[in-house]
Amino acid sequence: MTDLKKLYEAVVNGDAKAAHAITQQALAEGVDPLVLVNQHMIPAMDEVGRRFEASEYFVPELLIAARAMKSALDLIRPLLVARGDKPVGRVAIGTVKGDLHDIGKNLVASLLEGGGFEVIDLGVNVPPEKFIETVREKQANIVAMSALLTTTMPAMKTTIDALKQAGVRNQVKVLVGGAPITEKYAEEIGADGYSENAVGAVALAKKVVAA
Amino acid sequence: MNSRERVLAHLEGRPVDRLPLMPITMMFACAQIGARYRDYCCDYRVLAEGQIQTAGSFGFDYVNTMSDPAREAADCGARVEYFDSQPVALVEDDALLADKKRLATLKIPDPLGGGRMHNGIKAVALLKERVGREKIVEGWVEGPIAEGADLRGINTLMTDFFDDPAFVRDLFDFVVELELRFAREQVRAGADVIGVGDAAASLVGPQVYAEFVWPAEKRLVAGIQEMGAKVRLHICGNTRRILNGMGRLGCEIVDLDSLAPLAEARREMGPNQVLLGNLNPVTVLRNGTPEQVTGAVAQCHQDAGSRFIVGAGCEVPRDTPPENLRALCAYAHQHKP
Ligand code: B12
């Protein structure tokens, strides 16, 4: 039997090759893919998040850990789809119009995938119309926006207003984040949730889709 | 003593009449003259006008040519995007060195070849001509990790540290050479100080910083000092874990962002390092009251001690209330180090 603790370690250490190999072996041995995700990979990303908060890890370590997780997910996702497991939700994510800072957004996107969400990454500098189009055409049920500039924060409100105008606001939950965003600001602009980090973003997304 | 004499004397540890004042303004300076930010980035005459007007009306001791991070990368052939009211930006999806092999054939562009670097050099020359006797003229170059990120894509560079250390070293060698050439022409055009902006350094931890970034920064700083200019290091963001290394670079000025406490920097860098900063540009300078600004800058002064220059933690935001910036300036105008 594969030692699944090694999967946890591979993700924490950002070793994509090992994460892939261990996952492959475990799946061949008949381990349930969801066990791999929920009992090993998600706890690993929680630990990575903890180390980041404690200044033991920095952005490069976060990015390689997320990449290791993705390399395992690449094997797992097709299996879940094949057996008819539905994604927890479908997220349209992007940085708001005018904002090009995407490191945080990319991390949130990776972790949401790890958490069982289907993620449609719209990239950077995403205008409200693009979010609306994705909600309409791809049936996204979460819109997740990231902003790192005080000058682009207002684009979050503009986007929420545009979702209302387009008549799709009540089909989606809106999540916001990024360094200058606060709980209070999220409330003011009528978002459904805010988290200050990527690990929290997954818990938040799960909470809002369950609500 | 005029502004230029004041700053130079302070850097050399000689007595001065009051605290020097060197906040970073870019979009704010552009708004002061009602120009489009696109023009501020692309036309050295607009930049010089914005700097001279702003420095004049607020009583800054210097003028500065920084506008956006993309001057050097654009001249190297990287794809950049221009906006009417935002800084020129790199198109990261289409990074110049998306394919690492391209580095081997990449040539350092001539800073005087009529490109965006040339425009920055002309800005230095014009500022020198118009206010250079009275004020410090500060040029600007990107630091190794910032420029490396501009050429390679910041998300990719972050993983290169683990995947391909040799590539990162080659990339930083290229960048240091590029920045030294750019700096040399700015010094020739009259820059007294060269600002080195290495924003992305705050994203890496102490090990990556010590192994890759510091040695490249050190070569860049030493090279600029050999040209006879002084160096102002500016790293945006939280640099608490790398303060000690930043202090050992030997820069004349270390300019700190609001996330890096001045008291900590003072402990890490010793009593002689001149520190600049570090009011929170958004919560205090832009959103606060003049009284709050005065209180915050007094605290900075206390934490930094006498080897201190007044400024914000990063760029003064475009829509900062002028009375708040005036409160910052008044503190410098009214206090001795
Ligand atoms: C890297 C960087 C850049 C790079 C960005 C490259 C890229 N591809 O991302 C470049 C060089 C392009 C850049 C440009 C600029 N930048 Co910049 N940049 C930074 C820097 C150094 C790091 C940001 C970062 O990646 N942090 C790391 C990530 C992991 O953190 P994060 O994004 O906050 O994400 C976490 C959480 O917020 C949360 N989260 C994020 N998104 C979401 C979304 C949801 C839904 C949820 C739930 C959670 C969530 O989870 C993430 C993981 O835990 C910061 C300073 C700093 N060190 O913070 C300045 C900073 C953000 N930049 C700043 C500025 C001013 C600019 C420029 C205007 C500068 C200029 N004059 O050229 C331009 C603007 C470009 C543009 N139009 O966007 C300022 C912003 C000030 C302000 N408050 O307005 C900062 C704070 C620097 C400073 N002190 O002034 N920048």
How would you describe the overall organization of this protein?
The complex is a heterodimer of chains A (211) and B (337). Chain A has 211 residues and is α/β, with parallel strands linked by helices. Helix content of chain A is 57%, strand content 10%. Chain A contains nine helices and five strands; from the N terminus they run ααααβαβαβαβαβα. In chain A, α2 packs parallel to α4 and α5 crosses α9. Chain B has one domain: TIM Barrel (Alpha-Beta Barrel), CATH 3.20.20.210. Helices cover 50% and strands 12% of the residues of chain B. The model of chain B has no long low-confidence stretch (mean pLDDT 97). At the A-B interface, α4 of A face α8 of B. Cobalamin sits at the interface of chains A and B.
Tell me the distance between the termini of chain B.
15 Å
Question: Which chain pair has the greatest contact?
Answer: A-B, 20 and 22 residues
What radius of gyration of chain A results from the CA coordinates?
17 Å
Helix share, percent of chain B: 40-55%
SSE-based structural type of chain B:
alpha/beta
Overall 3D shape of chain B: globular
- Strand-residue fraction of chain B? 5-15%
Rg of chain B, alpha carbons:
19 Å
Main sheet makeup of chain A: 5 strands, parallel
Order of helices and strands of chain B: HHHHEHEEHEHHHEHEHEHEHHEH
Low-confidence stretches of chain A: none
**Would you report the number of β strands of chain A?**
5
Question: Main attributes?
Answer:
heterodimer; A: 211 residues; alpha/beta; Methyltransferase, Methionine Synthase (B12-binding Domains), Chain A, domain 1; Rossmann fold; 5-stranded parallel β-sheet; 9 helices; 5 strands; 57% helix; globular; B: 337 residues; TIM Barrel; 7-stranded parallel β-sheet; two-stranded antiparallel ribbon; 9 strands; binds cobalamin
